[in-house]
Amino acid sequence: MTAAARRPAMSVPDDSGELSLRDVARAHQPIRYGYWLLWLASVAVLLKFAWIVASNKNFEWGVVAKWLTAESILRGLAVTLGLAASSMVIGIALGLLLAVARMSSNNLLRLLSGLYIWVFRGTPLLVQLVFWYNLSMLFPVISLGIPFGPDLVSWNANDLITPLTAAIAGLSLNEAAYMAEIIRGGLLSVDPGQHETAKAFSMTRARALRRIIIPQAMRSIIPPTGNQLISMIKATSLVSVIAMGDLLYSVQAVYNRTFEVIPLLLVAVAWYLLVTSILNAVQSVIESYYARGEKGVSAPASHPLASA
Amino acid sequence: MTMPADPGTAPMPLVKARNVHKSFDRLEVLKGMDLDVAPGEVVVVLGPSGSGKSTFLRCLNNLESIDRGSIQIDGEQIGYQLRGQRLHKLSARAAARQRRRIGMVFQQFNLYPHLTVLQNVIEAPVGVHGRSRPDAEREALALLARVGLSDKVDSYPRQLSGGQQQRVAIARALAIKPKLMLFDEPTSALDPELVGEVLSTMRDLAEQGLTMIVVTHEIGFAREAADRVIFMDGGTVVEQGKPADILMNPQHARTRAFLSRFI
Question: ipTM surpassing 0.90, yes or no?
Fold first, then answer.
């Protein structure tokens, strides 16, 4: 027997029957019993838990419903949202300046910026708020002038500092320090080739930042900023120590009177959760705007990778 | 010993580099570069890695500042201003303005990923050179047609192949109507089958009289499109001359050793 005879014929394989048997496209798709069982169990447990909570008299859902849209609560909510919004806007603007200063070639700017960030990140927000509120006790007169020389303009601290200004000052200056580092991280994440290219096309640093670098940095800046905003919504509750009537303060004012602590806290929880959910949705929209041009995002008219 | 530039070229060189030295920390990368480039000349710079070719290119448009020597482009000293008898360093703004008529194409393309192809090309003309948007768009579309990418104007860079991205980068550099085009290893990051389309675009530009300084390893391009070939090693020019002379008949041992890897 020759070697050729022993080897199976290769020219015209008659395995059409074999192929239809072994084609992986026709493989059995197993039913993942374990997976679906787990789903069922989780849903059942969650439903049961929701039912237990909903029918628990101790939560006093009637009281929750009564106070959910009460006027004093809504006023507190407005203060919370207003404080959070204004502090974030100021914090982001100042944080951007600090971040750019921190990365500049000017040593003095870098040092001053670093000093600011160190102080405002290194001390508790609560302490900062108390300090701002009590500023008139420490510095009765606030003035601007030449160091060790004459003053140019001065104010009575009592006139400047109210619970509102102290709250905004405390929250925004603290936020600026954190935002500075988030923005700096985002700027660092941009490919260095982009800086160089913008420079080669004779863009000034400011123009390069505005048109090229920051838009690309936004992808890395948005998620932690969303975090900061959501934290800020809840951090505003600290202003209750300086007698600002935010959401938590209003809720506390009610339950200090009626002693219905849990239901009123649930009112606060419900509102915080609602606001946070809305912010989550907004964040997703903003993130998808800045992700245009990235892989996996919807393509424009022309077919990708078609040869020119 | 360097060979003198072809006496048939224009008398006033567009680029005049003299005794350029550049160090990074303790490492001296450029040790006395001299180069003249006439308007409309295509100069190809060859050399092993570490010879300072890319560094020298980036010194020409002041992306890197030089330590010693002088570089003049179109009569203007790069990075400095002569006031009376003293040289004063230019402010960042003035230095940026000097780069306006120098185009550059990078090895890594460096397109702006958040902008479409068309937006990439009109960014500098509209934002820096103050052209109106409709004018810039019209010129951009013409340039993109010239490099063969009319159908990609609304795509994002990520959706293009490497060769296409580099051609967009070339269009983007041409959009600023440069007097001088610098190419820093434009095809080194490309797959071999995409190199040809970029080189043919560059050949067209060379034929149209654009002043080009090209750092590359593409010997074929040097042979076909260059007016002059320069071999750099150790931070200086080892020899230079017509492509046929340098590539076929190198005078220096180092040049011969380098070219033997390619031929």
Answer: no
